[in-house]
Design goal:
By secondary structure, the protein is an all-beta fold. It has strands spanning about 25, 30-35, 35-40, 50, 60-65, 70-75, 75-80. The protein is globular. The two termini are about 30 Å apart.
């Protein structure tokens, strides 16, 4: 089991300026990339641990909760992706 999350070396993390741009919510966890690694924060017990990274998707697409549809912004409109990036390799 990997050790629990700690900022690299003696870095301090400001809660008002967290070191990640986006999070991926799940049923009982939130995943994010920080300090060059992928992390999972478990909401049920408050632990944070290293996790295997999911394959990268298109950062401009937003996937529906069921994973069947994705949308992206084109100009001032939302367009439906032909096939969500997350589903492409399956």
């Amino acid at each position: 089991m990997p050790p629990p999350w700690r900022p690299p070396s003696s870095s301090q993390v400001d809660p008002a300026a967290l070191p990640f741009l986006a999070v991926s919510p799940a049923v009982d966890a939130v995943e994010f990339d920080a300090f060059g690694e992928h992390w999972r924060f478990r909401t049920d017990d408050g632990t944070c641990e290293r996790a295997a990274a999911a394959p990268p998707g298109n950062p401009l697409e937003v996937l529906s909760p069921d994973g069947k549809v994705a949308v992206f912004r084109h100009g001032h409109d939302l367009w439906r992706a032909r096939q969500p990036t997350a589903a492409r390799g399956r």
